[in-house]
Amino acid sequence: MLFNSLTFVVFFIVVLAAYWDMRNWDDRKNLLVIASYIFYGAWNPPFAALLFSTTAMDFWLGRQMSRAEGRRSRRAWLVASLCMNLSMLGFFKYGNFLLENFQWLLARFGIVYQPPHLDILLPVGISFYTFHSLSYTLDIYRDVLKPTKSLRDFVLAVSFFPQLVAGPIVRAGDFLPQLVRPQPLRTGQFFWGLLLMTLGLFEKIVLADMMLAGSADRIFGYAGPLVAVDSWLGVMAFAGQIFFDFAGYSTCAIGAALCLGFHLKDNFRFPYAAVGFSDFWRRWHISLSTFLRDYLYIPLGGNQVRPVRAGTNLVIVMFLGGLWHGAAWTFVVWGLLHGSYLVVERVLRGLFEHKAWAGTLATRLLGGFATFAAVCIAWVFFRAPDFTTAGRMLGGMFGGHPNGDAILTTREMLQIGFVTAGMILVHWFLRDTNIETAVMRAPPWLVTTGWTFMACAIILTQGNSNAFIYFQF
Amino acid sequence: MPSSISNFKRRLRLPRLFFRKPPEIESIHGGPPLEYVRPIPELPWHGITVAVVLIVIAASFAWELYCRSIGYGPTLNDNTDLWTSARRQVRPDSIVIIGDSRAWFDLDLDELQKGLGRRPVQLAMGGSCAYPVLVDLANDKNFHGTVICSVVPHLFMAPPGTPPMDHSEKAVRRSHNQTLAQRASQYLAMPLEGHVAFLKQEELTLDDLLKRLPIPNRSYALVSPRFPPYFGTLDRERRARMIEDCARPGELQSTIQQIWLPLFSPAPPPTYIPKAEFAKQMGQAIEQRFHDVAAAVQKLRSRGCKIVFVRLPNSGELKALEDRETPRAAFWDRIIKDTAVPGIYYEDFPDLASFKCPEWSHLSAGDSVEFSKRLIPHLRAALEM
What we know:
heterodimer, A: mainly alpha, 2 domains, B: alpha/beta, Rossmann fold, 5-stranded parallel β-sheet, two-stranded antiparallel ribbon, 7% strand, globular
């Protein structure tokens, strides 16, 4: 079920009405479990069974781990949880990718092997809910979370419908405590939640799908060489599209959760105002970057190791981060690019951080634009279906096709220009604050106008219930 | 003396996750889980919400009135979900209409039901190529019914990757992959679209309004062709009827006539492929299509299916353009010859040739009923009914 669909509107109204009408906290939680499984099963009912089975396994493994005595025994249970979750993810998401690469490797040695193409249907949001569930056993192992006694509560923590299929990656440790006591339902919080949902849908339907997606698709789908202007505009259109698409989903999820009395953390914090790549990853897909930081980077040694090792760790983490997004080498290159950006930044910081000019506004602005440009270059590999397309795009961006084609219409160029400029300006103005503070400072008439404008634009745009980009991950 | 494990760990620098207890810094909350509470802006939310709801309702109502005042009326959107709901109606022995918008506008389901004894399922799609649907039916092992296939060569021979092919392929794909949620959304959308005039996904959207802004383009910009404005309604069975405004001579009619001409003209070859190479590729794609259509027809007939190709009326300059760009001998005759399937070319029959299309491409709602009546004997003969 998509947030931007009529089915969700009806579903959400029914769930809200029933939820607010109930007085008993257990009844409310039961309702949310049922609603979450209906929400997920509406894509493909058998996958709801898969979701439940991985959740139940992790619940049981977490309990076994907490009962186990001795480090070795706890580790064994953790390994079991990791194997179960990652093998499930590996089979559904990486099965064909691994087979194809195995075939390629054998061919290098002159062995002809024709693997059967596995007709595997990827369960929606498997990367997200696997991480929701995995965080539980990881945190129990790390002694930062006590296992819950209620399977129902854990099932709800993993499958809570607002964040189930495309994040944020809500850790069990963040959500389970909210299930202990009844969450108070306040009307101010409810209306703020509705406003956030409107904002999220506006970002998705109007900005991502209507203003930018068409141009990005045209540029990345064009089979010929393009001039630099069109290539850069196409990449900038995608940079905006993926931000509004994913941040829109996260904002909707946060808003929907608020309407039900739950609090999810921010997943984006004005990322295109980042100065440097470590700053970017503190602002972009925060729930994934902190997950990778806490469960992978720090256990690998974090910053507490020699610089060369720390740099290697960064690249390893970003390599896996890239692979998490999709079973393709283009995603791996995207991750490796970000890993190398982080390493270069670390080196530059070591050399120049204490210079007087390093903290000036001009340097920060320059750093901000350089970060945005480098992020855009990495997006080429994220969006391109193959390396041929990526190479052609990069060739165009760096002046390799001076006689290439110029295909964008003036309207498309203006749309990309206005939306990108607006997005970057808003990010810069709000980079050190949050949306709640910004809204609090605004007069009520301005909030009313903004909310009305967004709602009218959504109705006027109508939308085609396009799936969110991150559903495929 | 260090143990072999710690030695091993030191040498390989393996991840420490399995070898030590995490220090305080690794604790995700710096200790036991804390409840996170989002700040809620303190504003007069009741007043704001009531104002927003009232303004949005008033604005929507005003927009609806405006759209109706300039000639728009409620109609269903022809999207992949509506097509899928029709595809689901196909039974093993159904009569199925496939093809383009001419089959939509020109064939009246009531008359065909009277004449053929069974109500056909309308699977034609506006601006689409029938080939993917033909293949889908050929691959449906349960289907052994009858196929009435409208042929507009410009669309029927559209090579892969072009909009007519993409349109059909998308619909066929949706019919195989439609989720319960998408199906439910379609059921919820139909009553709304049937009553609200401004719900037109391809015309009255913000995107379309922006496209109408008169902004000059660079000389080589790839500008999407303009599509005709609203000129027909579509019902739940996907039967289209031309609106009266279009059926009578006037501005709408002449506007649509002029829109068809660029849409039916061959697209210029891409700049990055030499013209000769492009022509060669197009020729190969067309040959391949003849071959693939014959294979699909053979597959259908091997299961006992009946099939008839129909060329529906066109008029005016559009007819001249189609005759010039896709001559009958090179396309229609070749399809009939390669597939050995009966064909009904409207010009071959005086009772069918007398119809005129008001906007050059489709029959008016009234004429479509009479045309369908007259078509039935020809269909019965072709299908040996």
